[in-house]
Request: fold
Amino acid sequence: MVDQKHDRDGAGGGRATVARIYDYLLGGKQNFPADREAARQLLQVVPDAANVALSNRLFLRRVVRVLAEAGITQFLDLGSGIPTQGNVHEIAQAINPATRVLYVDIDPVAVVASNEILMGSPGCRAIEGDFTRPTQILSALDDSDLATVIDLDQPTALLYCSVLQQVPDEQIDAVIAPIRDRLAPGSAMVISHLSTTVTEAYGATGVAKAKNVYRTQAATEIIPRTSDQLTALFGDLTLLPPGLVPLTHWRAELSEPDPYAIAGTSSPMLGGVATR
Reply:
């Protein structure tokens, strides 16, 4: 997960970032006092916020497993945050050690931490980049040694996990289309995203308070979307079964139990995988 705005002085008590709030909710250690305070404020209004984060991470793991087993050996994770235990490279390389992974995040702290974690993982790198500027990412892939990690002329898994909810409606198509439309046959695109059903789960007041935490603490707007809005983002790609569904229901048998499945409820996030 990545925020579009960040404070390079976060370690000195500056602004929180979405990437490090997410890390804290997952029990990670790559976060600072501002991130922990923001997370505590979020948990006050959304007590199961940590379950939302864990459910998203379990979905990511299942998706990577399915795509790696299908033969995809390149993964481009945009807005990746910090690759904590059980992230893309670990899952994919356990299936095929030749798999290559490029993590892209706007938070320089997340990138430094990522590259430290990736030491000893051949074919894997993390770079600083803004996923909302796809032409810059494409230029980097075309014009640098990153082409040895990700070659978009070959089947690639493009991951947007819990990041697109930070993009305004008027920008969303321009953010996704350039890279989505470059994907070669045999590629896949993955989206997990906060659904408008979140209002049913937490009420309009609770959602407004949670949005305010991200707005005031991390300078980030959060925009839930409907199933129809999210389906449209896949363009001409074909959704894999079971389609765009609550994360709880996307091939749940492939990982440890989702916290919402244990509780007998549905995740407030939707997820889907589509292929070309």
